[in-house]
Design a protein that fits this description.
The chain has 16 helices and no strands. The two termini are 21 Å apart. It is an all-alpha fold and 326 residues long.
Length: 326
């Protein structure tokens, strides 16, 4: 397969997954922002969302203050932000257009229809309800993946698309977990300072809805209830999203699914990718949640992000970067 074709397939799937995960992160922040809480915590939670996505600097070039409305506008509609939902859906559709001959007509129509429907939404963006819009984005991304799995041959094109999806999913699950865990740590500091009670927020009430919103952002609330019948706790949430092999969006599940995909598209340069994935899988297989919390969840997530993004860079170097031409 030509590297240019592989590049389009990979990035079409990756941008689609990024649009969905951006919608998930925004949705969980939007839902928790409606709960009673200190104004200081509310601002920090939105600022942290920008920081974890490495977008704070570009955001401050366009907006003077970090507010829910400004962050939603920047992360959903802003075309100068390459990670905004509009930018991701446009990039996914453009990549699909370039390689229409390598995907099924159903897959192309799904991408194209999503973009056309988005144009109608943009015309009425001032009246759009953020929650409904974010649910629509998640639904359209789910639809594309369902069409992809239901209509495409299990060949190289399919494998490149799945690699892109899983690398993006692992990165974003880790970022969502890190963002909300840091938010919880901030809330505990404020509660210690008696600022939470002064603003009328009930700590136990907010704790439950904070973690429940996080689980719903990765479609894991019902799964959590099936596995753990007791209350929602940070350690069990992290256990589910990091180590549970049956959880579709968990870190270990993403890594385990990537390994056979790399074997399917093996070439002379893929040995390093297989080595890096094997080491990452081993570190997850031979660790547990107590060890993660002893190390520090934030440090663990940062290390995971560094390793999974290094694997993504190696994959790009091996398959996707075209040779320089005169």
């Amino acid at each position: 397969m030509l590297s240019r074709t592989a590049d389009c397939l990979y990035w079409m799937a990756r941008y689609t997954e990024r649009a969905e995960n951006t919608a998930r992160m925004l949705d969980v922040n939007h839902q928790t922002s409606l709960l009673p809480q200190p104004a200081e915590f509310l601002e920090q939670s939105w600022k942290k969302l920008l920081t974890i996505s490495k977008l704070e600097e570009s955001f401050l070039e366009k907006y003077d203050v970090v507010t829910r409305e400004n962050v939603l506008d920047f992360m959903i509609y802003e075309t100068s932000n390459p990670s905004s939902i509009v930018s991701c859906l446009f990039a996914a559709r453009e990549n699909a257009r370039v390689i229409r001959g390598r995907i099924t007509s159903e897959a192309w129509e799904t991408q194209n229809t999503t973009w056309l429907e988005l144009q109608r939404i943009l015309e009425a963006r001032n009246q759009a309800d953020p929650s409904r819009l974010l649910e629509w984005v998640k639904h359209r991304c789910h639809l594309f993946r369902g069409v992809m799995h239901g209509t495409m041959l299990k060949n190289e094109a399919f494998y490149f698309m799945n690699v892109g999806t899983l690398l993006e999913r692992a990165d974003n699950t880790a970022r969502i977990l890190e963002t909300k865990y840091e938010d919880q740590a901030t809330l505990k500091v404020l509660r210690t300072d008696k600022k939470v009670d002064a603003d009328g927020a009930d700590g136990d009430f907010f704790d439950f809805y904070h973690w429940a919103a996080l689980l719903r952002s990765v479609s894991a609330f019902e799964i959590y209830r099936q596995i753990y019948s007791d209350q929602v706790t940070p350690k069990q949430v992290a256990q589910l999203l990091i180590f549970n092999k049956q959880m579709p969006r968990s870190l270990v599940s993403c890594v385990n699914e990537l390994i056979p995909l790399i074997s399917e598209v093996k070439n002379q340069q893929s040995k390093e990718i297989e080595r890096l994935l094997g080491k990452l899988k081993a570190s997850l297989d031979y660790s547990d949640i107590d060890e993660v919390f002893s190390q520090g969840l934030e440090e663990f997530i940062e290390e995971f992000l560094e390793r999974i993004n290094h694997i993504a860079d190696e994959f790009s170097n091996a398959y996707l970067i075209p040779l320089a031409v005169a």
